[in-house]
Amino acid sequence: MAKNQEFYWRRLHSLLGVIPIGLFVIMHLVINNFATRGEEAYNGATHFMESLPFLIFLEVFVIYLPILFHAVYGIYIAFTAKNNTSRFGYFRNWMFKLQRWTGVITLIFIAWHVWETRIAKAFGAEVNFDMMENILSSPFMFAFYVIGIIAAIFHFANGLWSFMVSWGITVTPRSQVIATYFTIAVFVILSYIGVSTLFAFV
Amino acid sequence: MAENKVRFIITRQDTPDSTPYEEEFVLDYRPGMNVISALMEIRRNPVNAKGEKTTPISWDMNCLEEVCGACSMVINGKPRQSCSALVDQLEQPIRLAPMATFPIIRDLQVDRSRMFDSLKRVKAWIPIDGTYDLGPGPRMPERKRQWAYELSKCMTCGVCLEACPNVNSKSDFIGPAPLSQVRLFNAHPTGEMNRAERLEAIMGDGGLANCGNSQNCVQSCPKGIPLTTSIAALNRDTSIQAFKNFFGSDQV
């Protein structure tokens, strides 16, 4: 890699985490919540998303490439840290560590999730309510989905906090504390949306 | 009379590359003693807790009033200055270890050169030399001077680098201290004239973007310097600088 490009890679990593990946995650969680209104509503919403024009371009440029870059660079960031919460057990240091852990958990979850749905679809399976009901009927997979979704939402909410610091939006300690409360609210609300969707399938 | 004794467990290392080991010392308690006076006591009579004669402990010190930063070490797990570490306020046994983020020279003595190299790299000074008398510079408002004074308290002690999870052998992050100095010198009315140079220096590899916001630095700084506020403020400045660099600006 060229010299002195790190600043731009880091900023790109930070930006992509919120736009488009964060926005995609919110949309994905909200649309899937149609499942709480029954099988027909869910299948209707899924069908609508699948029939969007230029879908493959939307998927590649808004979802696949940004996530791929964010994941690869994120793993590099996670493994260059030397966590020290045992010596410095401060709140933000724990968030720092959890951000790296949830990033890795989310990557494993997404890899499996894409395999089970998107790639299965490419091999002819149909992505619908029945498919998810079938996957989530296994208690192991249900737990895996709960952990994966919570990890992804935590990573997004806490990432939103550090995004605001990394771009110089929240500078003062007070604005950073308020941003902490705001991102806790984001975490709780999105977690409710995500987990209630999962329970609609069982 | 156990309460009249002070126990120390010290991590020692004979050469920069040798394996560290622990050695225990028991000293007579004296009122008002601090870690440095205890180390001096051991130096006077280098005998460990087993009664064996040993070598005196090597450590760095200078001002003895917590302004030079030389005597930093890890005391009971936390990096701090040993001159202001009072034995009365420490849990026993008192564990001393070197700040292992830095290359260890011997025992508790470390080499903080990388911090001074970083200060050079970010141009943490105000260039005032010319071929002729440039005359007085612009005045600094008193309120700003008082604010900047807080940032100028940095003594390059290395505690923030020791506390930072992103400063380690796997990364080349320069750490919080030199970053905050960029904010200090950019705030100075004359220093401001070289603002972009300093910002571009910290936009290089191992610079500002390596901060992972664990905020251990601001919790650990013995001088209470608002390091994370400095980093966030510089994040804003570099965002604008990057925009100017790419899209162009009349304000160089």
Care to give the gist of this entry?
The complex is a heterodimer of chains A (202) and B (252). Chain A is mainly α and 202 residues long.
Describe the structure in your own words.
The complex is a heterodimer of chains A (202) and B (252). Chain A is an all-alpha fold and 202 residues long. Chain A has helices at residues 6-18, 21-32, 39-50, 55-80, 91-122, 129-136, 139-166, 173-200. Chain A has one domain (6-200): Fumarate reductase/succinate dehydrogenase, transmembrane subunit (3 helical TM bundles of succinate and fumarate reductases). The longest helix of chain A has 32 residues, at 91-122. By secondary structure, chain B is of the alpha+beta class. Chain B has a 5-stranded mixed β-sheet. In chain B, strands 6-7 form a two-stranded antiparallel sheet. The A-B interface holds A 3-8, 10-11, 77, 79-84, 87-88, 90, 92-93, 95-97, 99, 161-162, 165-173, 176 and B 77-78, 163, 165-166, 168, 170-171, 203-216, 219-220, 226, 228-229, 231-239, 242.
List the helices and strands and how they pair.
The complex is a heterodimer of chains A (202) and B (252).
Chain A: H1 6-18, H2 21-32, H3 39-50, H4 55-80, H5 91-122, H6 129-136, H7 139-166, H8 173-200
Chain B: E1 5-12, E2 21-28, H1 35-44, E3 72-75, E4 78-81, E5 94-97, E6 104-106, E7 109-110, H2 113-121, H3 142-152, H4 159-163, H5 176-187, H6 195-202, H7 216-220, H8 227-247
